[in-house]
Write a structure and sequence with these properties.
6-stranded antiparallel sheet; about 350 residues
């Protein structure tokens, strides 16, 4: 009996050992668990790059403004004869053209304003001329003047120039567009000065379209000094046409950072403020100027050559326009559009007989 029990015990131990061995083998053949590594970032919302807001500039002086400029430009016809000086607020204009207007040495200015309503007094005002009508076409101007000859006014009508006489008080009695300065009582024709806010109100009353969005041809940069320009601290512009002769001298003023306007042997100073009349930019445009009867005309569509000065430096340029309703465009010698300095601009229309020294 003891032998049978011992035999059974041995058999049991043998069977248990085999089971354990088989289980161990099964465990050994099981694949090890796979660990997967990931480099993916947690999902986030898509991002958008910040865009720079658009930069709007006043098209006549390059100053930064809050919205696109769509106002109409006003122009005033200003005397520039010795006996009609000093000027009043001429340099509050953004652009001032100086040109002969008719025979007998008559030179006048056409002053362009983007903010006419802010200028209290402008003058002295004189009558308009056909060459001013031509400039008005190129810039879509509303021209305020002290009357004009039948020839000049008929020419304005033919060119569809919106214009008015600042002394036309009978049309709108409650708007003051001008006044007479008693200082000029001995020369009544030189005593008329316009009032900016009145000019704008009168134009609105007359039914002129007060909104116009267009290109005026000027390009601006914060620093308009030409990098490759020659030194030109003094520029003499000989505005000669046949026997007519008149010099304009621009002297660079380091303190002002502008060219001071000298003519008739002295620096121009504003009658009211006493400030020196000075310009950030100086443009001199050689043009094909002719006269028909009494009055001067220019072939602006033909374009030509000229000079640009800023900061005491000067470079040669070319200029053109692509039609009588298109603005002037200015180019450097390497074919790039001219970048002018932010500020006001003087433009001389130089006849073929004229010349420039610097």
């Amino acid at each position: 009996m003891k032998r049978i029990i011992a035999l059974m015990l041995a058999l049991t131990l043998l069977l248990c050992g085999c089971g354990k061995t088989e289980a161990s083998k099964a465990e050994a053949t099981q694949p090890a668990p796979t660990v997967v590594e990931t480099t993916e970032e947690p999902t986030t919302e898509p991002t958008t790059e910040a865009t720079e807001p658009p930069v709007y500039r006043n098209p006549l002086n390059g100053e930064i403004i809050d919205a696109p400029f769509t106002d109409r430009l006003f122009a005033c016809t200003i005397s520039n004869m010795r006996e009609n000086l000093p000027h009043v607020n001429l340099c509050k204009a953004d652009v001032v053209f100086e040109t002969y207007v008719n025979m007998n040495n008559i030179v006048r200015c056409l002053a362009l304003f983007s903010n006419i309503e802010d200028v209290e007094a402008i003058g002295s005002m004189r009558s308009t001329r056909p060459i001013f009508n031509q400039l008005a076409q190129h810039y879509g101007l509303i021209v305020a003047h002290a009357g004009g000859s039948n020839t000049a006014l008929r020419d304005a009508a033919d060119r569809n120039i919106e214009n008015f006489n600042v002394e036309n008080w009978d049309v709108m009695q409650n708007v003051t567009t001008s006044y007479r300065d008693k200082q000029y009582r001995r020369s009544l024709e030189n005593s008329l000065f316009s009032i900016g806010s009145g000019l704008k109100e009168y134009a609105e009353f007359a039914g002129f379209d007060m909104s116009l969005e267009r290109d005026y041809g000027y390009r601006f940069t914060e620093d308009g000094v030409p990098a490759d320009g020659v030194d030109a601290p003094e520029i003499t512009i000989h505005l000669n046409y046949k026997k007519a002769k008149k010099d304009t001298i621009m002297l660079y003023d380091e303190e002002l950072g502008k060219y001071a306007w000298n003519q008739y042997g002295k620096v121009m100073q504003d009658q009211i403020s006493g400030e020196t009349e000075a310009f950030t930019n100086v443009l001199i445009l050689s043009a094909d100027v002719t006269n028909e009867g009494l009055y001067h005309y220019a072939d602006f569509e033909k374009g030509g050559t000229g000079y640009y000065a800023n900061g005491g430096k000067l470079i040669p340029i070319s200029w053109t326009c692509y039609g009588e309703l298109e603005p002037f465009l200015f180019w450097t010698e390497d074919g790039q559009q001219l970048q002018m300095g932010v500020g006001n601009t003087y433009i001389a229309i130089l006849p073929a007989d004229g010349s420039v020294e610097y």
